[in-house]
Design a protein that fits this description.
Blueprint lengths: L1 H17 L4 H7 L21 H14 L3 H10 L1 H7 L7 H11 L2 H20 L20 H7 L4 H12 L18 H14 L3 H12 L7 H8 L4 H18 L10 E11 L10 E3 L6 E11 L6 E6 L14 H13 L4 E6 L6 H9 L3 E5 L4 H12 L5 E9 L2 E11 L6 E6 L5 H8 L6 H14 L8 H27 L13 H12 L4
Parallel strand pairs: 1-5, 5-6
Antiparallel strand pairs: 1-3, 2-3, 3-4, 6-9, 7-8, 8-9
Length: 527
């Protein structure tokens, strides 16, 4: 309550000064303390960016509507503004993303949004001349109009609950811990607790206590019992269990859809931050920025107009300064993902990001008889080619090439096309025959990968249980179950749409939050 009161006072200070000056000057003159807020990073964490500067920056972004990238560009163009906020260096967009997810707890996030949204409402309600402030409609939930409510009214609550439970019933049967047959709890009870923890967004101790309170002390395991059981699951068996579950989920919708036609798939890597010691932690890797540490997981997902499901999960084991791992063998990860996914659906094209720009990856995908479209890192040879294009006033170019590695060889092409950002040239690698006249249109297919970013956001934000465990088996179990819950959500949404006439599109009818509530109610009976 104290921090909320201070958030409103903070907003009042900003609103008052906005009557007299511009928003940057307002922040330059701010002197209000934020001592009630707690920095989520411990004292030993290598976080050179000021906590106060980050809080002020987020309040500013919430007021103006700037994205992380837009705010970072503003600070780069105007270094004096970075100094005003108290930044020792200009953060990039990823630094803001990490701070919001990992450094700010619920209280800090609520403080930022409360202060900023108060300012936005006051500016528009009191007609304060402040053109930098975002529209009020962006922060206020408008009531549904008649057209908006039609689809929502297509499904009764009973239909939604019944369908969600149907999807959940296909999930738990293939996970075997190998524990004794006379164990106190069945594996499915640990799966239920894990599901509840993921959907409630809590850790083991709190989750098991809440679960036992609702189901009874004798029904669910204690937190330490749960962790011991989780560590009994062999990592390979977990991946196999996910594969079997995926097959079961797809069979559940076989009567409604068919994957006889090949699909487009996306392969990507996501990270789960880790802040502890890294000694003897072979599954912990460095992050792209070189500052963080994380567990890494690779997924293969269906994208496009098909049902957006994750078909395969694979942990990433990289060589790091603190272990003796082999150098990165990402092409082997790709091979395992595609092999497993092709057991479920035919795959036509695979889209990857630049982390997979490797001749071995190209050849692996060619050996698996799938097409690929992968953006290439810009090296000296690409810069030379782009320079020649500029001199010849060419916007698009296609360069033939040949992959030759120990596992085989194949012809391929580099496609030079205008960047979708409107600045510069992007280079893609593909094994398809694509000419200059069709290269730009073909490369637009890559934009479908935006779906996987939303996918990771939902998996980690809506379904991943919290843990600080150093044990890799725990981390893998938690992540796989979060992906499983995401698939259940997407399956449920598809089955709901299949029950009414209408076009199947990407946007879900049932939100992740609604799915969380319904599945939780199916696991835990009402009082």
């Amino acid at each position: 309550m104290r921090s909320l009161c201070e958030a409103y006072q903070f907003g009042i200070d900003i609103r008052t000064d906005l009557r007299k000056t511009d928003i940057v000057t307002v922040f330059e003159n701010l002197e209000r303390s934020i001592d009630t807020l707690e920095d989520g990073y411990p004292a030993w964490h290598p976080a050179p960016l000021s906590f106060r500067a980050m809080v002020l920056g987020f309040v500013f972004m919430e007021i103006t509507g700037d994205s992380y990238a837009e705010f970072a560009r503003r600070l780069t163009r105007q270094p004096e503004v970075a100094t005003i906020f108290g930044f020792s260096r200009v953060p990039d967009a990823s630094a803001f993303s990490r701070a919001w997810r990992n450094r700010f707890d619920d209280a800090v996030q609520e403080y930022v949004q409360t202060a900023a949204h108060f300012v936005v409402k006051e500016v528009h309600d009191r007609d304060i001349p402040a053109p930098a402030v975002r529209p009020k409609a962006e922060i206020v939930d408008e009531p549904l109009g008649e057209e908006d409510s039609v689809e929502v009214d297509s499904f009764s609550q009973d239909e939604i609950v019944q369908t969600t439970r149907l999807a959940r019933d296909h999930a738990f049967g293939y996970f075997d811990s190998g524990r004794a047959a006379n164990a106190s709890y069945e594996d499915t009870q640990f799966c239920e607790l894990q599901t509840f923890m993921g959907m409630a967004g809590c850790g083991t101790a709190q989750g098991s206590a809440r679960f036992q309170y609702r189901r009874g002390e004798e029904y669910g395991p204690h937190g330490d019992t749960h962790l011991r059981a989780v560590k009994q699951f062999d990592p390979e068996d977990l991946v196999d269990g996910f594969n079997e579950t995926t097959d079961r989920l797809l069979s559940a919708i076989a009567s409604e859809t068919s994957f006889r036609r090949p699909v487009t798939a996306a392969i990507d890597i996501t990270t789960i931050p880790y802040y502890g010691d890294v000694e003897e932690m072979p599954m912990v890797s460095g992050t792209k920025d070189g500052e963080g540490r994380a567990f890494k997981f690779t997924t293969l997902s269906i994208i496009g107009q098909n049902i957006p499901l994750v078909l395969a999960v694979e942990p990433v084991r990289e060589s790091s300064a603190w272990d003796d791992n082999r150098s990165n063998q990402i092409h082997r990860v790709v091979r395992r993902l595609v092999h497993r996914a092709k057991e479920h659906v035919p795959i036509e094209t695979v889209l990857c990001d630049r982390e997979f720009d490797s001749m071995r990856v190209f050849q692996t995908l060619s050996n698996l008889d799938v097409n690929y479209l992968i953006p290439k890192r810009i090296t000296s040879s690409e810069r030379e080619a782009i320079k020649r294009m500029d001199e010849d006033n060419q916007a698009v170019a296609v360069e033939s090439a040949f992959v030759h590695v120990e596992t085989g060889s194949h012809p391929m092409r580099f496609l030079y096309v205008p960047s979708t950002s409107g600045e510069g040239t992007t280079v893609f690698a593909t094994n398809l025959r694509v000419g200059p006249e069709e290269a730009e249109t073909f490369c637009r297919r890559y934009s479908r990968r935006w779906q996987i970013e939303n996918e990771y956001k939902s998996i980690k934000g809506d379904f991943l249980a919290k843990t600080s465990s150093k044990d890799y088996r725990v981390r893998l179990f938690y992540f796989i179950f979060a992906v499983l819950l995401y698939n259940i959500w997407r399956l449920t949404d598809f089955l709901l749409k299949a029950g009414v006439d209408g076009e199947m599109d990407y946007a879900p009818v049932l939100t992740a939050g609604e799915c969380v509530e319904i599945v939780a109610s199916a696991l835990i009976p009402p009082d």
